[in-house]
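Input.
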Amino acid sequence: MKSIDKRHLVSIGSEGAFGCEVDYDSWQRICSDPNVDYCNIHIWPYNWGWAKKDSLMLNMQRAKDLTKEYLDRHLDICAKINKPLVMEEFGYPRDGVSFSKAIIYHCSRHLLQLCILAFSRRLSQGRILTGL
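Output.
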């Protein structure tokens, strides 16, 4: 790509460590490649087994804690290798795991707020630029 478009930004399009068999060292080595311009992650607490279908709200604190840990570990790696991090995908089931448009998204809002706070905290500390 760089030979065709030198200004084209390149990422690996990974979920983060989950895309590397939960091996943070592998993710760091791949992202450290000089051809990679920025890092990216996805956040899928339900898909990764951090919350159960029948107890989304009961599992909310666990999902929030694991999401925060996942974000922080990736943000620390990005600071170490001096590359920005973009959270490309995020998802949590609708309340009641329903497809009804009338369902409110309390669970998703909780986790998204946590992600925004984590990124904002890093920015306010003058750390590596990150984005959603």
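Helices lie at 24-31, 60-81, 106-124.
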